[in-house]
Amino acid sequence: MNESTFDLEAAAGTIHTWLGEADRVLITAGAGLSAAAVYDYGDEDRFRELFPALHHLGLRSRYLVGVPLPPELWWGYWAVHIDDIRFSPDPNPLYQRLSSLVGGKDHWVMTSNVDALFARGGFDPDRIFTPQGDYGRYQCTTPCTATTWNTRPLVAQLLAAYDPATGTVTGPLPSCPNCGGEVEINVRIGPEFVDDPYLPAGRRLQDWLGSTADTRLLILEFGAGFNTPGVIRWPGEHLTRQIPHARLVRVNPTHPETPTDLAGRTLSVPVGADRLLNALTVPHPAPDPTVAS
């Protein structure tokens, strides 16, 4: 299946039907959903606009994890990046449309995204599981403690000392409030990641899923590819296999494939989330049952 021959209108009709038949909805999402919401980490033009000094050094995207940079430059990047993607004041329209789509259905969210766009888009924060962390928290790099701290005042402090021409921050660099050592953003990069803030939501989600065995669960998966398939993509397939009445909709323009052993209970949608959600906002005819695969 490819995007040029895909019948988007028929797929939207199928999704409307499956939503109507579902008792519960689990929304799962990877980086592709935020990219569709104009937060594309691979967008070179936006990177050049936000980080001119880094672009001049030859860097071309926000995928900077693992790139060695001087601490002053590294924290300059993080301050601008987090301020842009995590603390922008307005809710994102794409996430608001997704929230309206599920409406009053009993639903949960599980996402590898760390930008809090779901909570800012109208979803209940108590029903969002973010196992990869949150740009809104930072931690001791060691870590000396399982405590994490609010990133907002840290970002404000860094931006006040930020020079766009050089991409650096001046003055003291961030340090651990507990031990005085180095700190990092509380996202899952290595074994030092502190996951304590996210475990309660994970347990509540597990309890919710544990009571879905006899219900009709619809999993709506957006933009989850193969960078970290064990976080979103494979768990969704596993749940569909384990729950007899579960269905899986996979929305991904580059990796829309679904397992052959789940034929009849999956729908592969090879377009971006923005196109699909636009299509879902207009009336649709009865779905073609041959669309599901």
UniProtKB/TrEMBL annotation:
Domain of life according to the entry: Bacteria
Deacetylase sirtuin-type domain location: 1-293
Binding-site positions, Zn(2+): 140, 144, 176, 179
Alphabetical list of InterPro entries matching this protein: DHS-like_NAD/FAD-binding_dom, Ssirtuin_cat_dom
Keyword Nucleotide-binding assigned: no
Gene3D superfamilies tied to this protein: TPP-binding domain (3.40.50.1220)
Keyword vocabulary terms for this entry: Metal-binding, NAD, Zinc
Protein's recorded name: NAD-dependent SIR2 family protein deacetylase
Organism of derivation: Streptomyces pseudovenezuelae
